[in-house]
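Course assignment 3, question 2. Fill in each field.
Student: A.L.
Task: Predict the tertiary structure for the chain below.
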Amino acid sequence: MKFYVAITDGDWYSYLSKQTQLEEVNFWRPSGGDRFRALQAGAPFLFKLHSPQNFIVGGGFFSYFASLPVSFAWNTFGPKNGAQTEREMRNRIEHYRRISPAPGEDYEIGCILLQSPFFFSENEWIPASDWPPNIVRGRGYDTADLRGEALWGEVEARLRAARTLTLQLGPTDEAGERFGAPQLVRPRLGQGTFRVVVTDAYNRRCAFTGSPVLHVLDAAHIRPFTKDGPHEIRNGILLRQDVHTLFDRGYITVTPEYRVEVSHRIKEEFANGHEYYSQHGKVIELPKKATSRPSSEFLSWHNENIYLD
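Answer field:
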């Protein structure tokens, strides 16, 4: 099994390690230019403090990487970015970017999205005494190697003691993807990661209107989370905020054939709605990957339980 150890911003780590019940965090990089390709989804991603504190102090499970405008990252993850305010987050990023404070600039940052984060108490920190001083970002390991096996063994022991690690002998999902031994259950996506994954799947365009204005696009749950709808890409659809509201309230739905249905209730209740009725019967814009498209099961549920026919 491959895993990765990254050098963490100390303030980011200190803030998040004091939080409780975190289901996800954004391990940001100050620049969005370099993609993170070292891991497959579900693989462990560990945190190491800056030298001279050469210790591994926690980690999470990698789910997704995206380059995002800093304001979008803040609006999506809030304090899960490792800061109490957006200004505090920007101050840290701008320190690493070596630029003056730029409150009006929406520069892009790299977002390594991690699920099920964990943080070790100081007496559980794992020494990384062999860490080469020239590494400034991180390095990969493999449990097929002696060093990787030993290091993961120490991490695994701490997670088992805290009962935060679940081992699985079979495939990690319905597609049967495997990440090598030992097997890890792929963590469920958090709300913020769900939003980013769905946004990218639709190429950052509203499935209904084609709008590319990122800041007014929402990842809508087809079956609401409050009604047992999961944070899964096939339960998501990217919609402009007004369309999202109408979708959630049942004035609009999408059939299992991906066609738009607009309820007559819009005209009856608001004496208008031409913009929406003009889309009636059209096929929505869909993700290129078939595995990212809305599930017919979730769409049928919305048709039958939410839509105002």
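Instructor remarks: The chain has two domains: 2-162, 191-305. DSSP finds nine helices and eleven strands in the chain.
Grade: pending
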